[in-house]
Design a protein that fits this description.
mainly alpha
Length: 326
């Protein structure tokens, strides 16, 4: 799945967006990145009956870490210095966002469909905004509050499958709740990473965070080896793991960093929302999943909330953006 805001440690505006002929190429890179990310949900759901979730999480981050590590060898001295100075902080942040988040989503996909997971993940920007208000004291205007409430109603509609009776009978899909918890973990990771402001090359920092995720996921994986009967990888599991670790892992992470360098962090992050569309389309053709009315109703509420948040920003924030653009 996507590591959506990898560059938040440089959140003041990020890299200058691309201009001229390179802009189309930059958009293409971003689209391919989110298509690869969407495929991770499909692969995880496809093998959920055969492959334990924490095995998939652990091997994904380990293989991606091993592939990307040689690329950032030129930053080795800076990486070692950062680990020595702030190793525990890296472990907590990387473990939360790149291990616990992924593990919870993979657990959720054992019981929930990929289409629903894709819609729930669209909640991440809203959760991030709320946590940024609580942890970083960032402004949150009236329309942002209303938009957040609308979006949460949308998630409630999806989890309850459009039936209030499910609430009265506490008839929830546990998988969907695990996915909401995963979205919360990633939002927390985003805010903590923004607060940390690590001074390191973006891709090198990602590699360190993936290393932290490997360490964090290992105990869950070892417990799973002892407790879960699905310990042997079959052909489907190997194919899924190869996908989520290489094109859906290392390559996707690399492309997202490239898209940030050319588009800027804010614009690149907005492409998150097309991931939901990709997941729904791929789930329909590959997994045979269907869109239900409650999916559409919930998605409509989430989109309405997002539009309120994005288009009607607090006056102070809008004025700051206008000043930075002039």
């Amino acid at each position: 799945m996507a590591i959506h805001v990898l560059a938040v440690h440089r959140d003041a505006g990020g890299t200058e967006p691309a201009a001229g002929g390179t802009l189309a190429a930059a958009y293409s890179v971003a689209v391919v990145c989110w298509l690869l990310s969407a495929g991770v949900y499909i692969a995880a759901k496809w093998v959920s009956a055969e492959m334990p979730p924490w095995a998939l999480c652990f091997w994904r981050v380990l293989i991606a870490f091993a592939i990307l590590l040689p690329i950032v060898r030129g930053h080795r001295a800076d990486m070692v210095a950062l680990v020595q100075a702030r190793g525990l902080e890296l472990l907590v942040i990387g473990g939360t966002g790149l291990a616990v988040c992924q593990g919870l989503i993979f657990v959720g996909l054992e019981h929930a469909d990929a289409t629903t997971a894709g819609i729930i993940i669209a909640l991440i920007p809203i959760l991030t905004m709320i946590l940024a208000r609580v942890i970083l004291a960032e402004p949150m205007g009236r329309w942002q509050v209303i938009g957040s409430i609308l979006a949460f109603f949308g998630i409630a509609v999806i989890i309850l499958k459009g039936s209030p009776a499910a609430l009265m009978g506490l008839d929830f899909n546990a998988g969907e709740l695990w996915i909401v918890a995963g979205a919360f973990c990633f939002s927390l990771y985003t805010v903590l990473l923004r607060r940390a402001k690590f001074e390191l090359d973006r891709l090198a920092l990602l590699v360190l965070l993936l290393g932290a995720a490997v360490i964090t996921a290992l105990p869950f994986y070892l417990y799973e080896l002892a407790a879960d009967e699905r310990t042997t990888l079959n052909a489907s599991g190997l194919v899924a793991l190869a996908y989520v670790a290489i094109p859906g892992g290392a390559l996707m992470y690399y492309l997202f960093n490239r898209s940030i360098e050319t588009l800027g962090a804010s614009r690149a992050g907005m492409f998150l929302y097309i991931q939901t569309i990709f997941i729904a389309v791929l789930a329909y053709f590959i997994l045979g999943e269907q869109l239900h009315l409650y999916h559409l109703e919930g998605a409509a509420l989430i989109i309405a909330g997002l539009l309120l948040i994005l288009l009607l920003k607090p006056k102070g924030e809008a004025a700051a953006e206008k000043a930075s653009a002039s």
